[in-house]
Amino acid sequence: MPVLQQLLARLATQDACLVQVESTQGSAPRDTGAWMAVFAQDQLGTIGGGHLEWQAASKARDLLARGGAPLSERFALGPRLGQCCGGVVQLRFERIAQADSARLAQSLAPVCSPVAVFGAGHVGAALVQLLGTLPLHITWVDSREQLFPPGLPAQVQTEYSDPIEMAVADLPPGSSVFILTHDHQQDLQITQACLQRQRQHGDLDLIGLIGSATKRASFAHRLAERGFADAEFARITCPIGLPGIHGKEPEVIAIAVAAQLLQHLQRAQHA
């Protein structure tokens, strides 16, 4: 269960102190917005660990025990704190209860980038399992509905589509798309549908196609015969996966692809 849902469930029976990073200067273990919820005996989430988190948790329990208005405090990450990051973190402390649940569900919800994974085979399953731990909204598509496992994270939505490429039209704008079905013809049809959507709307983000350099050349040729220019096909990332991560095991491919996606999203965020 995602940590926010765990917090909301526990607030039904226990109050907590919410500790949130208000701002940072220089090097800091977590960015603005990171949070943890401190209960009398334990905590959920993290603001970066180490002595910063230990001292913040101690202060949070004091506030939880005695009550009081929300407050902010500055922590210098230097020798006095037993950390050598060298930055400064401003933390906000606030006692929270069940009555705050609706507000917290909105304010603490992570911004989830949309991702579509086409293919529920070994690699697709490994990739969705990994991406499901990240703040992403995932649409998982296959033409074989029986392959979708039960018990998926809340941010993973499965979609049966036959023909499979029809699902491309309904993807949220800004989606990153990974094409890794069991069938090269399906991969080709999905790639064509993505290029067609880019031609009409230009609203897809990273488009990744599993395969070799040979597959890339073959698809480029076949799509050129269908009227797509080289510049359009150049938008397709194939092979997929962060360069330098080798191995053909599904889990290794999934890690390489997830790393590539995170790198892409972070670059776009800071562009």
UniProtKB/TrEMBL annotation:
It comes from the Bacteria. Residues 12-69 form the XdhC- CoxI domain. The lineage of its organism: Bacteria, Pseudomonadati, Pseudomonadota, Betaproteobacteria, Burkholderiales. Pfam families: XdhC_C (PF13478), XdhC_CoxI (PF02625). Residues 115-261 form the XdhC Rossmann domain. It comes from Comamonas sediminis. This is Xanthine dehydrogenase accessory protein XdhC.
